[in-house]
Amino acid sequence: MYEWVEGHADAYKGRKLTLKERLNVRCDALAKEALMDALYSRSFISSDFPFETVRVKLGPRKVTKSLRPSILHHSSRRIAKQVFGFGPRGSKIINEEQFELIYWDIFPRVLKKFPSSFRDWLSKTVTGCCGINHFLSYWKPGVRDVCPSCKYPGETIMHITRCPEAGRTTIFYEMVTDLEQWMADNYTPSTITEMVSTYLRNRGTESMSSRLTPHSHFFALASAFDFLGWRCLLEGRIPTLLVQEMHNHLANTPSRIGALDWAAGFVERLLRITHRQWQYRNSVVHYKVDGLTQDEHEAVISRFEELLQIDPSQLLSKHRHLFESLDFEDLGNASAVTKQYWIYSVESALAAAAHHRHSRRRSHDALTDTCEVQSLRDSPAPILHSAPAPHLPCELGIRYKKRRMK
Ligand SMILES: [Zn+2]
């Protein structure tokens, strides 16, 4: 007589296990131990079972679960590899070794916590196709490739999380403090907490492994973080080794969450750090005073200063009051809208003066032509040659039209 006992009951933290469940968990642990021993000593039988009529392999691995999700997962992984770096149209974000180190399976769990707009932002940020000035300057006239916060030339995707502007730095440190607190509250080893927070506070200028000795238990983990780099960490691409380390560590603590929940919480906070920087950056770019953004204000001031340099004698006399009867100190302190009105007035006056000069030149040319015609009329008639009359294309045109009408 057999009885079903639920497997992996120890995965539910805080659940009190029955005797049968505890025995089942113990059997699982012993089986895993025996399997690992066999792998180390290479004393195992072939994994191909006898009498298998169909055997499906995806890459080097045999499919042991449902076919459809296995094929989908394999195909998605192949496409992700191409997108991230090493396909014909790869974006060179990471290399193949880095790709294999990353714990990708955490993303479905993390992304469930965010709305679709956040997921859209993440896709754009991860692929580097977001509206940073480095890209906008290519196709949007008037956009310069500088950081809107610190005015650093070259606002690339790496600069978003490394901007040294005071406001953004304050927010960055606040978010790192939140992450530190969360890690401490969730039974994270103090070495990992310190390793990650110091790396973030230094903005990635100092590697994690440089603060550990090669004999340290966490040296391999720190090296994995270093190998993936700053951008991977801030975009939630954590090493698989971290999840394994936390799995082993949390099993010996009273924590009610497992390694996957811990990793999901960790990645979620990392993504929030990057997203907060992006939001702050956009608040500077899109925040409007007098209906104008910061860039538009700067453009108005630049044009205002440019027009102050022109000579009023270039304008028509009726428009010179724009320069002569105006207090420029008051105008300089006035709102951007008032400056815009003055700029538009001066630009109109310049256009009117240009039009006036053009008209005068044309009337002068016409007068000169008339005088020349008159002098030709007064001169003796030229001697006509006995050359044949020129062919008149208009005659042909008229005849052609008549034929068409018939
Ligand atoms: Zn900046």
Radius of gyration over C-alpha positions, nearest whole angstrom: 38 Å
The level of helicity is 55-70%
Lateral arrangement of strands in the main beta sheet = 1-2
Unreliable sequence segments: 381-406
**Oligomeric description of these chains:** single chain
Shape descriptor reads elongated
Question: Mean pLDDT across all residues, rounded?
Answer: 84
Largest sheet: 2 strands, antiparallel
Q: Which ligands, by name, code or SMILES, are bound? A: zinc ion
* Order of secondary-structure elements: HEEHHHHHHHHHHHHHHHHH
The total beta strand count reads: 2
Tally of individual helices: 18
Q: Tell me the β content.
A: under 5%
Structural class, by secondary structure, is mainly alpha
Write a concise synopsis of the structure shown.
The protein is mainly α and 406 residues long. The protein has 18 helices and 2 strands.
Description:
The radius of gyration is 38 Å and the shape is elongated. It has 18 helices and two strands. With 406 residues, it is mostly helical. The C terminus is likely disordered. It has a two-stranded antiparallel sheet. A hairpin with a 2-residue loop joins strand 1 and strand 2. The protein is 60% helix and 1% strand. Among the domains are: 193 residues, no CATH class; 68 residues. The N and C termini lie far apart (107 Å).
Fill in the keyword field for this structure:
binds zinc ion; elongated; mainly alpha; 60% helix; 406 residues; two-stranded antiparallel ribbon; disordered C terminus
